[in-house]
């Protein structure tokens, strides 16, 4: 399996309410981290994103927790597109400690492009596919 290069890194702030009574970031918060990373990735890489018309919805999600995150840790979410189909794309993401580069949590997901106007799935815009492939430095389209 090819090693993933993460070209998109977004520093995250741990908020007071992210930490549970056990003194670590609650597992439910990680999905917010991944959603923020995905949204910033798409907004910064893909041209002409209109969040009032374009949506990206979760079709599949797998999260693996490697070690705890505490309130004073410095963390970031890293995002890479690993495969693009006709209406969906695969993401690899991870939350890392920015001081040690330790992977705290990893996530693989399949996202589907969705029209808020039509209320149905739509093909990924070709200009998005091109921009993602350029950003990732390789053709990540799935072979048919």
* SSE string, helices as H and strands as E: EHEEEEEH
Main sheet properties: 6 strands, antiparallel
The general outline is globular
What proportion strand? 35-45%
State the helical fraction: 10-25%
CATH superfamily: Hotdog Thioesterase
What is the count of distinct domains?
A: 1
Q: Spans with pLDDT under 50 lasting ≥5 residues?
A: none
CATH architecture: Roll
Cα end-to-end separation: 19 Å
Class in CATH? Alpha Beta
- Derived from helix and strand composition plus strand pairing, the structural class reads alpha+beta
CATH third-tier fold name: Thiol Ester Dehydrase, Chain A
Q: Give the integer mean of the pLDDT values.
A: 95
Gyration radius, in Å: 16 Å
How many individual helices?
2
Number of strands: 6
Describe the structure.
- The chain has a single domain (8-136), classed as Thiol Ester Dehydrase, Chain A, CATH 3.10.129.10.
- Strands 1, 2, 3, 4, 5 and 6 form a 6-stranded antiparallel β-sheet that branches.
- 19% of the residues lie in helices and 36% in strands.
- It has helices spanning 29-45, 126-136; strands at residues 8-12, 54-65, 75-84, 88-97, 103-115, 120-121.
- It contains 2 helices and 6 strands.
- The chain has 144 residues and is of the alpha+beta class.
- It is globular and about 45 Å long.
């Amino acid at each position: 399996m090819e090693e993933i290069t993460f070209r998109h890194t977004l520093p995250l702030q741990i908020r007071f309410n992210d930490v549970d009574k056990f003194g670590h970031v609650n597992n439910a918060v990680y999905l917010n981290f991944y959603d923020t990373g995905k949204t910033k990735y798409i907004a910064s890489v893909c041209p002409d994103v209109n969040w009032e018309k374009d949506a990206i919805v979760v079709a599949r999600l797998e999260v693996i927790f490697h070690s705890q995150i505490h309130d004073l840790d410095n963390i970031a979410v890293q995002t890479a597109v690993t495969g693009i189909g006709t209406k969906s794309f695969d993401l690899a993401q991870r939350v890392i400690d920015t001081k040690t580069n330790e992977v705290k949590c990893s996530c693989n997901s399949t996202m589907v492009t969705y029209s808020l106007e039509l209320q149905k799935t739509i093909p990924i815009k070709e200009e998005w596919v091109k921009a993602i492939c350029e950003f990732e430095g390789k053709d990540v389209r799935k072979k048919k």
